[in-house]
Amino acid sequence: MKKSLGAKTLIYPTPILVVGTYDEEGKPNAMTAAWGGICCSSPPCVTVSLRKATYTYGNLMSKKAYTINIPSENNIKEADYFGMATGRTEDKFAKTGLTPVKSDFVDAPYIKEFPINLECKIIQVVEIGLHTQFIGEVMDVKMDDSLQEKGDQPLVEQLRPLIYAPEGRHYYGIGKQIATAFSIGNGIK
After folding, report:
1. pTM of the prediction?
2. What DSSP designation does 161 have?
């Protein structure tokens, strides 16, 4: 038997994404967001949804660009802080000691110490309700050499990305590989 929980945003896993932007004066900022992910494969696009009240919202509307920075378990404190503080009053990079790097393809900073960075140009903005969705075309991906297994495929076990459980407000790591996609199901065919 199943229990009805009502209308909720209960999808697992929820990724931890750190959105990098510049404000109108060129000051770098970073904000942690869990409402986002892949939304198109061709062209490659990712999305992030933010409330209008956030400092990052204004930066996105002004610069039409952002980066998605994927933190590892090593970056949990900084990722959490980026979601707690506001760039309106704090220099988050100075506080964390992390390094903003000017992107090669878009007007937004990426975080040098985070293992994967996606440079995104905003191609669509969708007003949804409490949140606004920013769809960004991925213009480039930067990845630490230490994560590369086969060409441009990361070693997830070394990346150690984070996921978020919104109902309990907890962070989790990702476990071991259990199967190969588009293969394990062949036993049912």
Report:
1. 0.93
2. B
